[in-house]
Amino acid sequence: MRQKGAYVDETTCIGCKNCAHVAPDTFYIEPNYGRARVFNQDGDSEEMIDEAIDTCPVNCINWVDYTELKKLEKQRKNQVMRNLGLPPKR
Fold this sequence. Notes:
Keywords: Electron transport, Iron, Iron-sulfur, Metal-binding, Transport
Number of strands: 4
Pfam families: Fer4_13
Structural class: alpha+beta
Largest sheet: 2 strands, antiparallel
Oligomer: single chain
Number of helices: 3
Order of helices and strands: EHEEHEH
Function: Ferredoxins are iron-sulfur proteins that transfer electrons in a wide variety of metabolic reactions.
Number of domains: 1
Protein name: Ferredoxin
CATH class: Alpha Beta
Organism: Hyella patelloides LEGE 07179
């Protein structure tokens, strides 16, 4: 069992969808702002997640210790995000 989890810095993410194509059982594109997010830490193999991390064009995905991951997820709730060109939700 891994002692680390993948984390997407959504403020840096450009919504290119590469990670969701490379490791679709781990990453998805968050519908409100068009950025990548991890939805299942164990969805894909570590090798597939590594490939998604290595091929991210803006290096916004990292492995972090699970204790750090909890802190980062909590901090995300206070982030101000701007929409990446998706139509506004009505």
